[in-house]
UniProtKB/TrEMBL annotation:
Gene: cobT
GO biological process: one example: cobalamin biosynthetic process
Catalysed reactions, as listed in the record: 5,6-dimethylbenzimidazole + nicotinate beta-D-ribonucleotide = alpha-ribazole 5'-phosphate + nicotinate + H(+)
A Pfam match: DBI_PRT
E.C. numbers: 2.4.2.21
Function: Catalyzes the synthesis of alpha-ribazole-5'-phosphate from nicotinate mononucleotide (NAMN) and 5,6-dimethylbenzimidazole (DMB).
Protein name as catalogued: Nicotinate-nucleotide--dimethylbenzimidazole phosphoribosyltransferase
Highest classification ranks of the organism: Bacteria, Pseudomonadati, Pseudomonadota, Gammaproteobacteria, Oceanospirillales
Length: 348
């Protein structure tokens, strides 16, 4: 991992300045395309180009189970993780639909599902079968964290080798909002009650129980909040570690990564704590309804593109945001300038 981190350069601010200047020559009042203009600048900073090609996008969904599911912290049984992996493989999940809409290369990676999934096309890269129950023991050993991070790095390498020019990372793992909330509380010191939510649909009484489990885990586990890998080992998840690796790898390849919801943003925060330069490569797709997402976004000083009241995961919100990135790049490539269109510029 140190060699991967050494390969991550800060984004190119000079290319961003060039993009900003070019934007003001296009046939529109300066700044009138709002967030799309900021997005175009960021895509130039990432790629070094005025109008980078972003297609095809890669959608990589990492799946894993969580021992803490035994504490009754999810509205759904643990078996749903494996069942949804089979659904991804057969093309029936929301992310399959949205990935098809944007012509993405979709890959599903089993980095730690408890059982064996008999389904075509799933990449089986199991580091272990589920994490330990964080209320009772560490989620993983440090060498398992490193192996799971590498699973994410390898998945991005496959996507790049297949010609992908942007990366969307998603996840599936029953109880992973518990692991994500615990990690976020550990990283930021935010009170547990402010980072706990319904996940797949807990009522308010069940959320109090979930907060109690997280509080116990935080008290019982040994970790150093300044060492992201130790936080992953004590409280995290195999898919969260793989997503962390995927964000690091996207940055090392100078590819934009679109961050999805709560779990994805906690993984993105983990990657940025490991290497702050990763932040410049991240575009935030949507704001999840999970309350901890706001805390995680604030920790990253991030404003998502869309607010759709979603809380699904799988990379779904990021996939829906992808056309906005395409629009930002296309506007740079295709819009006329004041000069080329013979339109009078703003009077001085
Ligand atoms: O992405 C989000 O913001 C999000 C918010 C709530 C739930 N999820 C999904 O729901 C699962 C975790 O919920 P839970 O209640 O089992 O912890 C997991 O598979 C996630 O993909 C995802
Ligand atoms: C059905 C279902 C689909 C999901 N996709 C991501 N997390 C999920 C959780 C459940 C329960």
């Amino acid at each position: 991992m140190p060699s991967l981190i050494a390969r991550i350069d800060p984004v190119d601010k000079t290319a961003g300045d060039r993009a900003r200047a070019y934007l003001d020559t296009l046939t529109k009042p300066p700044g009138s395309l709002g967030t799309l203009e900021a997005l175009a600048v960021q895509l130039s900073e990432i790629s070094g180009e005025l109008a980078p090609i972003l297609t095809p996008p890669a959608v990589i969904v990492f799946a894993a189970d969580h021992g803490v599911a035994a504490e009754g912290v999810s509205a759904f049984p643990q078996a749903v993780t494996a069942q949804m992996v089979a659904n991804f493989a057969h093309g029936g999940a929301a992310i399959n639909v949205f990935a098809r809409q944007i012509n993405a290369r979709l890959e599903v990676v089993d980095v730690g599902v408890l059982g064996d999934v008999e389904a075509p096309g799933v990449v089986v890269d199991k580091v272990r079968r589920a994490t330990g129950n964080i209320a009772l023991e560490d989620a993983m050993q440090l060498d398992e964290v490193e192996a799971a991070v590498q699973v994410g790095v390898n998945a991005v390498a496959r996507a790049r080798d297949a010609g992908c020019r942007s990366v969307i990372v998603g996840e599936m793992g029953i109880a992973n909002t518990t692991a994500s909330s615990a990690m976020l509380a550990a990283f930021t010191g935010t009170p547990v009650e402010q980072v706990v939510g319904a996940g797949t649909g807990l009522d308010s009484r069940q959320q109090v129980h979930k907060a109690g489990v997280i509080t116990r885990a935080l008290a019982a586990r040994a970790f150093d909040a300044e060492k992201p890998l130790s936080v992953l080992a004590a409280l995290g998840g195999l898919e969260i570690a793989a997503m962390t690796g995927a964000y690091l790898a996207a940055a090392a390849c100078r590819l934009p990564a679109i961050v999805d919801g709560f779990i994805a943003t906690v993984a993105a925060l983990t990657a940025c704590r490991l290497c702050p330069a990763v932040r410049g490569y991240l575009v935030f797709g949507h704001r999840s309804q999970e309350p901890g997402h706001g805390v995680a976004l604030e920790a990253l000083d991030a404003t998502p593109l869309l607010t759709l009241g979603m809380r699904l995961g799988e990379g779904s919100g990021a996939a829906l945001a992808f056309p906005l990135l395409q629009a930002a790049s296309a506007m740079m490539a295709e819009m006329a300038t004041f000069t080329s269109a013979g339109i009078a510029d703003k009077s001085s």
